Amino acid sequence: MSLHLLLVEDKPTTREQLLQFLAQTPFTVSCANDGLEGLNRCKTESFDVVLVDHKMPLMDGLALIKSLRQLPAYRAVPIILMTTLDSAQVDPLAEKAGASLCLSKPINGARLIELLDDLARTIAQPQQSTA
């Protein structure tokens, strides 16, 4: 089973750095340059995880997360918000928008890889029957 991750990041240098980390995970990675492009990609493609920058042109990360959570296919998909702002201020906003997790920038590559490896294992496990 191939796992797909959408990286939504407007800054090319940050995107390249994140792509180096993501290459070490089991995910096939697609990129969007802003929130609006990310939303449009999610409407036409299926992703198992969405990694979103907070501050972007056209549509910021929080607006993107709110919009994704309104799409039936993305109600339960892990969405991770990345921010340069104080996480104590952003965490409540991210949670309210529907983010699964908020990470502070600069991103700790080892932590991101570990987190995504754990998510990949969780996604790949067959659903347990409660009967």
Automatic annotation (TrEMBL):
> What processes in GO biological process is this protein linked to?
phosphorelay signal transduction system
Name positions with the PTM 4-aspartylphosphate.
53
InterPro entries reported in the protein's UniProt record: Bact_response_regulator (IPR050595), CheY-like_superfamily (IPR011006), Sig_transdc_resp-reg_receiver (IPR001789)
Residues folding into a coiled coil are none
State a single Pfam family of this protein.
Answer: Response_reg
Q: Which UniProt keywords apply?
A: Phosphoprotein
Which part of the chain is the Response regulatory domain?
A: 4-120
Q: Which SUPFAM superfamilies match?
A: CheY-like
Protein name, entry field:
Two-component system, chemotaxis family, response regulator CheY
